[in-house]
Amino acid sequence: KRGHPEWRRLLVVAAMSAARTDAWRDYVARQRTKALPATAIHVILARKMLRVALALHKNGQEFVAPQAQAA
Question: I want to staple 65 with a disulfide (CB 3.0 to 4.6 A). Which of 10, 12, 13, 23 is the partner?
Fold first, then answer.
């Protein structure tokens, strides 16, 4: 485990909330097919969200959620 423990905790808590949103629902569903524990899925999502946030900050862009694909 690296980094500040409180920051890590806050990232996972944010991921727990984001997992229920339309923007991340498909990504979480794909992770669930791997039969991982919920905590592991939230950590994976937290890391993904952090990578996206840093990329958006670096490029000066805003987050635009992908549109849900019609089945």
Answer: 23
Residue 11 tokens read as 């990232």
* Residue at token pair 């991340």: 24
Nearest in space to 29 (alpha carbons), one of 60, 56, 1, 68: 68
Contact 10, 50 (CB under 8 A): no
Find out whether 29 and 59 touch, Cβ atoms under 8 Å. Answer: no
What are the pLDDT tens digits along the chain (71 aa)? 788 999 999 999 999 999 999 889 999 999 999 999 999 999 999 999 999 999 999 999 888 877 655 54
